[in-house]
């Protein structure tokens, strides 16, 4: 009996679609980190489409490059932009950005798990593993985790409730605090009713978009308003696991996990060290701090230190900073905030672990210890890998964008690190980039937001049991 060509062709198509579907399902279920990449990319495509509709802009048109870059900057809570958010986007466009920033700030995997918890009232093991991977890269693989974790699987449900509740409470409190301050600053009651929650979301998520023309410049002398923004940036940058630990043991420091102690101590040290550096380097710069009195200079130095960590808000023109200050800012942006936070960078705990490892090596100790706890070697390897991958991404992006734009390397490097650290500060370079360089910068933002966690998870996932050991030979190092 002859085979029907039509049915045979349809069967081949069906089998091919099944194979494609099986490949996609395997890709998304075999690793939470792969699932995160896919969901982030899907959200970026969705928000690119939403920001491209005519009603989302005041001009009725947003170019593809600008829509893609704004979508990436929104979902990855960065704050860099190729257009003026305040004037280019309509109220609908700003609502889209507001929603996207909150989705990206909480974390895509965390938000998906929260929705699943709300709908089903419970979390299965796979959902717990996916949610836990957002709070700890070492959870993002299928193998066993032998060492103690900051957030145990049994506590994932509580952590998710903390994420949702802390986001609502902190953003709501900040918005309530900002509303009368905006009224006193001359903003109309209706405009302040919208701008207060917008600023609250941009501060807590460490994004830095501003809804009004001129950004924070009109509020440069309003220290109360700027202090509220700094507090929100700080709470967003320490990370949800730290907020969870503080919620459980706020006044009992001895019960804080090691991660919480390292995050808070390193964050505070960098905050004061950065402010001191900016104060010393910029006090005589007539284009930044040189025209201010001692109090203004000191406050603005602290504000700039907080914002270069990942906040993204700016009062002074970053492009007018001395080159030495740009280097300090680049270093702070590269470090970023806490793990599983709304901030970017290699994370403060990564820096702390590496610093402790260097100190232990200098002291000739066999193990790395802190606060009566031993930090295992796999955590040290992951920290080193995160720094190496981060430096590689920054270097390659800087080379490519500098070649395309032919702009000064110092300016390109600053904006690239700002993109990688999802900070949002710019020397003014990003807004003037050509489309090919814009796409490279967007890719840098994407890798900076999901890259450190995903790459750390990939490193952890590659460890397999090995029943033999190779002969030892020591190369010369140093």
Automatic annotation (TrEMBL):
Keywords: Cell membrane, Ion transport, Membrane, Transmembrane, Transmembrane helix, Transport. InterPro entries: Cat_transpt (IPR003445). It is a multi-pass membrane protein. It comes from the Bacteria. Pfam families: TrkH. Its main location: membrane. The chain crosses the membrane at residues 35-56, 68-89, 95-119, 162-187, 223-247, 259-281, 331-359, 379-400, 437-461. The keyword Transport applies. The keyword Secreted does not apply. It is found in: Cell membrane. This is Potassium transporter TrkG. The lineage of its organism: Bacteria, Bacillati, Actinomycetota, Actinomycetes, Micrococcales.
